[in-house]
Amino acid sequence: MSDPGNTTANAVGADRSLGQLVAAATAEMSALVHDEIALAKAELRQDVKRSAVGGAAMSIAGVLALFSLPVLSFAAAYGIHNLGLGLAWSFLIVGVAFLLFAGLLALLAVAKFKKVKPPEKSIASAKETAAMLQNVKPHPRPASRPALDKAEVKVSA
């Protein structure tokens, strides 16, 4: 009978040193991180493509809506004219309606802009990080190249 604790995997693992096991674990973790990064890049690429298509569709829709405004304005003015009002008055009514609508949108925009506040949490976090980093002292590093004395530098004429 064979010993259940003595499998080939255990035998192979027993032959490996601690350094080899750590190196294997590090390599596997590195491969896992690289795979996660590749997955994130693929997801971002897909999201960017979707956003680009959505942005292009929205832009085209905006242009078409902008081109339809004069047509709809003329249709409204001529529709009011058909009710019995003069043509000039009809166009004036349509123009004033547009100005009133623009004024309402401007009031809405001002109300929304007044609600805009600075990002307090981000500012507090940045101040906390800056306060913590003020107490940190850098580690001394050896000079990578010896500094040249002014006396050692020769100027050729």
Describe the structure concisely for a colleague:
This protein is mainly alpha-helical and 157 residues long. Helices cover 74% and strands 0% of the residues. The mean pLDDT is 81.
Portion of residues within helices: over 70%
Helix/strand/pairing category = mainly alpha
Poorly predicted sequence stretches spanning 5 or more consecutive residues: none
The biggest beta sheet is recorded as: none
Q: Give a count of the beta strands, DSSP E runs of length 2 or more.
A: 0
Compute the average pLDDT: 81
Shape: elongated
Number of alpha- plus pi-helical segments: 4
Question: What would the keywords be for this entry?
Answer:
157 residues, mainly alpha, single chain, elongated
Report on the architecture of this protein.
With 157 residues, the protein is mostly helical. The chain has a domain at 15-117. The protein has four helices and no strands. The radius of gyration is 36 Å and the shape is elongated. It starts with 7 loop residues before the first helix and ends in a 23-residue tail after the last helix. The mean pLDDT is 81.
